[in-house]
Design a protein that fits this description.
217 residues, alpha/beta, Nucleotidyltransferase, domain 5, 2 domains, five-stranded mixed sheet, 28% strand
Length: 217
């Protein structure tokens, strides 16, 4: 491991996440789970301004400058919230010159769903979906890549990014997307830290919100 990669382990990670009706921040230092700090809040009438204010309540400007890695969820979730948290993450990444990567909301909950439903077989695949208010579904596909003795060692790969589908095929495994603010933030911190040494981490320019449907839907 190079000195540069060793140094990365000595700096904090910041994650930003949103669901259909809430958003949150997570902070972890030195990849130490005991250092985790979480902030979760339901949407209010002025999410745009309060998002920034709540971030600075959560983390000081001084500590924000020390952040070495940012990860953000890109949806599918509330349209405006996804857009705002991605813009916030991109802006911070650009200003403090640190790597930024992203994960879909379904990828973040995939491990919890696999564990809950005892899906541990290597190469076993399943779908996660949300029913649309109108016709159809948003669905993404996930595959078990590795599993050892404990759920914590379960590794899942996103093989199909969440997209709109007209119907769910009965021959496939499907599970409804159910968010859990606290658990999702912790999992996003885990995913972020596992990807910390990835030399191909996306730049802030490449991180965009996931919009499977138009805002009016």
């Amino acid at each position: 491991m190079t000195n540069k990669l060793k140094q990365r382990n000595n700096y904090p990670t910041l994650v930003i996440h949103s669901t259909d009706n809430s958003f949150g921040f997570g902070y972890r230092k030195n990849n130490n789970l005991e250092s985790d700090q979480l902030f979760i809040k339901k949407f209010d009438n002025d999410l745009c301004n309060n998002l920034i204010n709540d971030l600075y309540k959560f983390i000081s400007k001084e500590n924000l400058k020390k952040i070495n890695k940012i990860s953000v969820s890109i949806g599918p979730a509330n349209f405006n919230a996804s857009r705002l948290i991605v813009v916030l993450a991109r802006t911070i990444s650009q200003q403090i010159n640190c790597p930024l990567d992203s994960f879909s909301s379904f990828e973040i909950i995939a491990k919890r769903i696999a564990s809950k439903n005892h899906i541990f077989t290597n190469k076993k695949s399943f779908w996660i979906y949300k029913k649309l208010k109108r016709k159809g579904f948003i669905a993404g596909k996930y595959e078990i890549c590795h599993h050892e003795k404990t759920d914590s060692e379960l590794v899942i790969r996103e093989t199909v990014l969440p997209k709109v589908v007209k119907k769910l095929e009965s021959k496939e495994l499907f599970f409804e997307a159910i968010y859990d603010d606290k658990e999702d933030l912790k999992e996003l911190l885990d995913l972020s830290n596992k990807n910390l040494l990835n030399p191909n981490v996306d730049s802030w320019k490449n991180v965009l919100p996931l919009y499977p449907i138009s805002p009016i839907n």
